Amino acid sequence: MFGNFDIDFLIFGVMPYAVLAVALVGTIARYERDPFTWKTSSSQLLRRKQLMWGSVLFHGGIIVLFFGHLIGLFTPVWLLDTLGIAYGAKQWLAVILGGIAGASAFVGASMLLHRRLFDTRIRVNSSFADIAILVALWLQIVVGMGTIVLTLGHMDGAEMIRFMTWSQSVMGLQLNAWTEVVGVHWLYKLHIFLGMVIVAAFPFTRLVHMLSVPLRYVTLRPGYQIVRSRRRRPLEDRRRAHDARQAKAGPVAPAPAPAE
Question: b/e per residue, 20-57, with b = 16+ CB within 10 A?
Fold first, then answer.
């Protein structure tokens, strides 16, 4: 799938830095430019039951997967050696935890995607970005579960070390980092590629609410409010109309009627 040298270099050597730049600049720009769009846009009022089950299963699984990947990829190899942790043992831990969390996230994401695609009211109230990011996450989970099957065929941890070295080399700005993953199975490459696409889309979707969870949802306010809007004009049109009104002078008071 990615057999061409130029494709490998572009995706695994150049794309990671472009993705990180887009994610960082885009997130800051959105918060500064459109802070009122920094929300989950919950559809809970339209249909609650399936949302709650799907949301709990999805978020529980995806949080474990996120931190599992973060710790697994960015733990220095020398630290594993120093602590005497066998590569195979780490591989088994990743397979077991990843399998359980992946299954939970898959069921939850499937419920949420089914709800958003086949419930007429929710589909009408969903933007293209809402549906696209959920489809991308669902595909990423499916591909990730597929990589677990591949991993069971080589539990010595050799492939795991290659991905750790690539991730840490990218963050260390090493230009030859891409060579670490040239020879891996195309399913692993697809998993990495989809992950970078999701990170690049992060500032432009509802995923940005992840950054608010530790601070605003927990420490700065006791809860959150669900609001159902009756306005049908796109948010951008309403914002432009508001900016236009703000640039105009206020209403002029009528002149008093002459005394008789």
Answer: eebbeebbeebeeeeeeeeebbbbeeeeeeebeebbeb
